[in-house]
């Protein structure tokens, strides 16, 4: 199309720039969470995540080394020298301004000497080296306090992930929730596929009265909100003794996922070549053999599409888990629920929230990028045209 | 037993059980009930083939009936009973009680807002993204990145956007993007242009589009041309009335936008600003659903026959004319599909509201209201009644889907 009349270079540039803006706008929120999960609590609360890629300024308080142990005589005065950063354990920081009282934290430039009265002086260099001079009386007791404005280079840490995944902390930890989610997801993805595949085959390739009605019912059930099912099913589960737990959750996910599964698989199977199936029938294959040896392998793309849908849906689900799975003990909490609880208890602790959220997002994102083609195909086949 | 082990056993039992059921039921049917030999072999084969579909369908029908069919009926029954009176039949009392509650009316109003804004915005952005990425070299990468939020859970997205909406005291650095941007405005000319004039123009543009759509629907009646049946006339008038109402709402909104005193220099708690906080919640869903709309519409755009576009270019149409007058009308059915699908998602939206505000500050929606009633107030009657309301709102789409699906099959 580009070589046809009406092509304008300016317009092409406008398109490129608009797409770039759109993509950046859509990416920006996720990147924010991702970057935040690698920052310490102090860093997060002192600057926005977009500043994380540049050096940040922080106000810090240091204390000179203990005079009684460290002072050395220099003529008739005593000197304590050292580096504030060595004690704090960081080295790539630089000091811009500093002071010796909390009211005047920017009284001196780096490298200047502060006069503390009666000949007592303190010099602080840009790199954090200090020299504290005074007479016997002044250089004693506790170390002099130093308030400094420090420019720290960008710094990222894996501590948050360690804390959330490995510490075994019951309230912040995501490990248990991660495995619980996995336990919910895998059976809830596989079982509906098996049931739906057989039903879809019957609806696609077998002749029987009421077939059209059944297909219409499946289409209708596609849109029934699962909210309707919560109370009756919970009562049913409690009544027959399943109670709240994995079994009920798997069953519920299976039931709620079936309409889409049947619909997708049937639409795909109908499109398979008729000759293939009829030849197999003529050759004496039973319906069961046709299904397992012919239809199932050929339907792999549709099976994969649905598997991704169901996986994403069960992994990301909160409502079904809250109603059918999580009991008062909280032993069976899933990641989405854990995050909601963290939002309540740790509302301001973004380092924990961001990391926890990213742990739960990571797996679906991997699946998404690895199997995007099948997801798109499923979407195109799944929306009722 | 360890849950993971239980899960593994369940997979094996579930899958194995299903396969065994299908296999053995077929064997039993073919060998014992209607054996394909002896004097009745021919008749038996026919009979077996009549029964077989139901063997294949039985597990699915049982699961669907138990997990979707039965609950619809049971919820309807529960909505007519009172839990606190031991399940006594109370007629429509639950519904009347619910209609009387301010929280319910608030939820209905917000849901209507969601129903208008989210599908419209998602479809519009999706269409824009689909059209723009269609013919550029890195279009597929761009699409994949815009599509990515589809994989993120509503809860995860809520955390992401809560970080964006975060507010700190005025004197410390803002860590939420929105407040960081907001603090740049101080009430000068730039603020006037960006926060008053620009929104007013956007809303005016929306009103213009709505008014034009309404006019398209009402035009045949005004001009007195062929109008079709009475039902069509009613439909056209209804759409026109809705459009007129929306235009009126838009005009009043513009007046509000232009006259409101803005709180410059003060960090805002965005999620507690009543009325506007609804839009901050909607942004989350729009962010997620745009990718979906884009993927479907992009496929539809590719399906447009090249000849129609070439003909338009030969006739001297501008790119905008080609888009709005050639492409959009041809993919209209797909736009309707996208719109209705997103509408369904909106009607069921629960996680976002639950995680971000839990319905406080006048952000309640139906699904969260229902959850509140069912599991916090423990009022199954009113909870079921609100579930039925959601079902009623869904049912026009349900009927339409069944209708189109049947038409397609013929």
UniProtKB/TrEMBL annotation, chain A:
One of its GO terms (biological process) is transmembrane transport. It is found in: Cell membrane. Residues 178-371 form the ABC transmembrane type-1 domain. CDD domains: TM_PBP2. SUPFAM superfamilies: MetI-like. It comes from the Bacteria. Belongs to the binding-protein-dependent transport system permease family. This is Alpha-glucoside ABC transporter permease. It comes from Notoacmeibacter marinus.
Automatic annotation (TrEMBL), chain B:
GO terms for biological process: transmembrane transport. Pfam families: BPD_transp_1 (PF00528). GO terms for cellular component: plasma membrane. It is found in: Cell membrane. Residues 108-401 form the ABC transmembrane type-1 domain. The chain crosses the membrane at residues 54-73, 112-133, 145-165, 201-218, 230-248, 279-301, 335-356, 380-403. It is a multi-pass membrane protein. Keywords: Cell membrane, Membrane, Transmembrane, Transmembrane helix, Transport. The keyword Cell membrane applies. InterPro entries: MetI-like, MetI-like_sf, UgpAE/MalFG_permease. Belongs to the binding-protein-dependent transport system permease family. This is Alpha-glucoside ABC transporter permease. It comes from Notoacmeibacter marinus.
């Amino acid at each position: 199309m580009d070589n046809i009349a009406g092509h304008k270079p300016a317009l092409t540039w406008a398109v490129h720039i608009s797409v770039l803006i759109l993509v950046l706008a859509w990416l920006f929120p996720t990147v924010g969470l991702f970057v935040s999960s690698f920052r310490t609590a102090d860093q997060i609360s002192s600057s926005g995540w977009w500043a994380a890629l540049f050096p940040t300024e922080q106000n810090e308080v240091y204390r000179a080394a203990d005079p009684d142990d460290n002072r050395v005589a220099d003529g008739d005065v005593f000197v304590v020298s050292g580096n504030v950063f060595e004690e704090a354990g960081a080295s790539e920081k630089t000091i811009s301004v500093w002071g010796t009282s909390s009211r005047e934290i920017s009284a001196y430039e780096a490298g200047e000497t502060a006069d503390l009265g009666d000949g007592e002086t303190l010099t602080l260099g840009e790199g954090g080296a200090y020299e504290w001079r005074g007479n016997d009386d002044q250089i004693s007791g506790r170390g002099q306090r130093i308030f400094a404005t420090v420019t720290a280079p960008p710094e990222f840490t894996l501590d948050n992930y360690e804390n959330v995944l490995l510490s075994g902390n019951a309230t912040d930890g995501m490990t248990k929730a991660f495995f619980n989610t996995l336990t919910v997801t895998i059976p809830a993805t596989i079982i509906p596929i098996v049931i739906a595949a057989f039903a879809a085959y019957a609806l696609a390739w077998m002749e029987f009265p009421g077939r059209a009605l059944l297909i219409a019912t499946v289409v209708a059930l596609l849109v029934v909100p699962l909210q309707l099912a919560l109370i009756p099913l919970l009562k049913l589960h409690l009544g027959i003794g399943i109670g709240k737990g994995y079994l009920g959750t798997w069953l519920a996910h299976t039931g709620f996922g079936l309409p889409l599964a049947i619909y997708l698989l049937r639409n795909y199977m109908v499109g398979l070549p008729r000759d293939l199936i009829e030849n197999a029938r003529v050759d004496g294959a039973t319906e069961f053999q046709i299904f397992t040896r012919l239809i199932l392998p050929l339907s792999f793309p549709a099976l994969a599409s649905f598997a991704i849908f169901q996986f994403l849906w069960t992994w990301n689900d909160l409502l079904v888990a809250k109603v059918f799975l999580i009991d008062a003990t909280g032993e069976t909490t899933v990641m989405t629920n854990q995050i909601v609880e963290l939002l309540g208890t740790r509302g301001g602790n973004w380092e924990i929230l961001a990391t926890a959220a990213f742990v739960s997002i990571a797996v679906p994102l991997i699946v998404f990028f690895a199997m995007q083609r099948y997801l798109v195909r499923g979407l195109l086949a799944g929306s009722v045209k | 037993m360890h849950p993971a082990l239980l899960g593994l056993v369940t997979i094996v039992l579930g899958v194995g059980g299903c396969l065994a059921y299908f296999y053995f039921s077929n064997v039993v049917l073919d060998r014992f009930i209607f054996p394909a030999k002896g004097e009745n072999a021919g008749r038996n084969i026919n009979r077996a083939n009549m029964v077989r579909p139901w063997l294949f369908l039985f597990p699915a029908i049982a699961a669907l009936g138990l997990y979707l069919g039965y609950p619809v009926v049971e919820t309807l029954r529960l909505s007519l009973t009172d839990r606190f009176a031991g399940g006594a039949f109370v007629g429509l009392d639950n519904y009347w009680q619910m209609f009387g509650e301010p929280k319910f009316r608030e939820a209905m109003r917000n849901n209507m807002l969601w129903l208008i804004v989210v599908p419209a915005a998602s479809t519009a952005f999706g269409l824009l993204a689909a059209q723009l990425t269609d013919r550029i070299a890195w279009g597929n990468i761009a699409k994949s990145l815009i599509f990515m939020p589809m994989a993120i859970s509503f809860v995860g997205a809520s955390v992401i956007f809560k970080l964006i909406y975060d507010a700190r005291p005025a004197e410390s650095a803002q860590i939420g993007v929105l407040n960081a941007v907001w603090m740049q405005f101080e009430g000068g000319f730039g603020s006037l242009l960006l926060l008053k004039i620009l929104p007013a123009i956007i809303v005016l543009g929306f009103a213009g589009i709505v008014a034009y759509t309404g006019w398209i629907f009402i035009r045949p009646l005004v001009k007195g041309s062929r109008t079709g049946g009475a039902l069509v006339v009613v439909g056209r008038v209804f759409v026109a009335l809705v459009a007129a109402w929306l235009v009126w709402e838009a005009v009043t909104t513009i007046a509000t936008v232009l006259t409101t005193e803005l709180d410059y220099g003060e960090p805002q708690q965005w999620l507690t600003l009543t009325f506007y906080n609804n839009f901050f919640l909607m942004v989350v869903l729009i962010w997620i659903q745009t990718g979906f709309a884009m993927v479907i519409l992009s496929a539809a755009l590719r399906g447009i026959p090249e000849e129609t576009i070439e003909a338009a270019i030969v006739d001297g149409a501008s790119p905008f004319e080609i888009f709005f007058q050639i492409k959009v009308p041809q993919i209209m059915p797909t736009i309707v599909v996208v719109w209705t699908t997103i509408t369904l998602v909106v009607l069921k939206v629960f996680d976002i509201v639950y995680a971000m505000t839990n319905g406080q500050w006048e952000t309640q929606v139906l699904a969260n209201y229902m959850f509140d009633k069912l599991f916090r107030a423990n009022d199954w009657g009113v909870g079921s009644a609100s579930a039925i309301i959601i079902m009623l709102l869904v049912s026009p789409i349900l009927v339409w889907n069944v209708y189109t699906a049947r038409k397609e099959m013929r």
